[in-house]
Amino acid sequence: MTLKNIMLIISFISLMLFNTTLFAQDSNYNLIKKEVTQKQINLLQNERTVMKANREAFKASLTKDQLAILRNKTISKNQIRKQLVATFSRNQKDGPESANSFKKNQR
Questions:
Q1: Number of other residues whose CB lies within 10 A of the CB of residue 69
Q2: Where are the domains of the chain?
């Protein structure tokens, strides 16, 4: 076999593996979408909206020091999380009531 044939075979196999993962993800999403009722879709969309609003409110509550911790690229994400949690105020720890009640319902 020539080098050209080997490269063609490797390219073909790579292309097939890549396409398989794309189709698998798409088919799983469509399968889930078919099994969910419109009411459940609306509930999920409402929950996403609440989560986005909570996330924006949390980001707005961060101090300059907390933002500096988040932007620090010299430490690991785990260390960033630990340092950030240590600086949280009581309101930041508690979060919105709706988020806390949702978390409790999920447990």
A1: 20
A2: 28-61, 63-106
> How many residues are present in the chain?
107
Cβ neighbours around 88 below 10 Å, total: 16
Inter-axis angle of helices 38-61 and 97-106, nearest 10 = 130
What does the pLDDT look like over 57-104, one tens digit per residue?
888 889 999 999 999 999 999 999 999 999 988 888 887 654 444 444
**How far, in Å, are 3, 4, 26, 27, 62 from residue 12 at the CA level?**
14, 12, 21, 22, 50
Distance separating alpha carbons of residues 48 and 55, to the nearest angstrom: 10
Average pLDDT, the chain: 79
